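Follow-up to my earlier ticket, as requested here are the two runs.
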Amino acid sequence: MHNSDKYRQYYVKKNKNVCWRCTHKACKARIETRDGTVVSEYGFHCHTQKVVNASATAVRIACKRKASEHLMERPQEIIRTALQETNSELNGEVTHQDVNNFRAAICRERRKNTDDFQRHQGRIHRGG
């Protein structure tokens, strides 16, 4: 994140600078970093800035990690554990919609892992 905007890694130059693009597809804004600090900015954002709840993002990332590690644990238990592990004063900022987003992220992560496993199993059975 830089100036409340999310970026994704685009490529690494020969001089080891890392180029990043805005996560919005139509946006042409880019930044270039060296050793984690912004060296230059290019373009401008063609969209409105969205306020990002940093505590909700941290909890969502923790939920996704736990979802792939603990496949038999219920989503509500994963969310509860992730909320307890994050800073307790930030939990007041987490809304009901955030909790629904956590649950959806857990389901997507588990589906992704399950699909990879089933594809792998299918290759073994066809080849053997």
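Run two:
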Amino acid sequence: MHGTPFFLPENNFYVPDRNRYNLYRPIIATVLQKQIRASIISLLILSCNREAINMIASKTFKFSILLPLLLILSFLPIPKPANAETELIVFAAASMTESMNMITDVYKRSAPDVKILFNFDSSGTLKTQIEQGADCDIFISAGQKQMDQIDISADPSVNTKKLDLIMPATRFNIVSNKVVLIIPKNGDPDSIRGFQDIITEKVSLISIGNSDVPAGQYAGEVLKNLGIWDKLTATNKISYASNVKEVLSQVSTGAVDCGIVYSTDAATSEAVKVIAEAPKGSHRPIIYPAALIKGTKNEKTASEFVKFLKGPESAGIFKNVGFSIPRQDK
């Protein structure tokens, strides 16, 4: 038997390292004894338990038959418990943030199992997201144009892509709004008294929404109908914002001298003052349409929430923040 060799440089050959072998011999013997004992026990078990082996083989065969069924069942939807929460996704114009959150708090009392998830942004952005396939159950726009662009029953000159994303017979007008001119709360109300002052030296910068934002579209209509749009653009006095909330922020922080927003947005901020309301006839009526989106997985829940939005409790909240309730003729 040869142990681990070691090298003797002066003789230039190998000899067994007997001291090292003697050191590890007890350990090696113990390991071998354990292995032999385990092997003997395994043989005894196998020889005495043929019935057990047959049983295992039989169960394995049965499992192989059940396996495809289990795989099929794994792909079937698991039914929700009776008290499971239903999530309702609502895309709403940014100017509805405060009122919709208040309405949801009230609605939760009568529908505790419904969780409403809001996406507040400009109506143009929300429309684009829906068009691109974003999950949405209810869409509330601050302008008819954005709703028309995805409604197959709307004017083809507006719905140029022939999009059919609105569930039939669910569209209605939920609220109406007004356009107002605001300044920072600490601003001098005598310096800017109305829309005509915007083109004077009293104003260096005014904030309005982008052209794809309903608030910006209405502001543009007002300024054009008052004959001051061209002068503002020629002197680079306009600061464009991505939505009406951004306009409100620019004015409240004093980043601009004034801004044009909805009356409801002005009412939510203590950091701005309303100087004037847009003259009658200077813009189209500001009507907010709402509708269910085709393909919603929660049509019943969405319809129940819409019914609540049309009810007296919601109407009271809308009026308290400055909205008006239009006639339900559509």
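The only thing I checked on run two: The two ends are 102 Å apart (CA to CA). Let me know what else you need.
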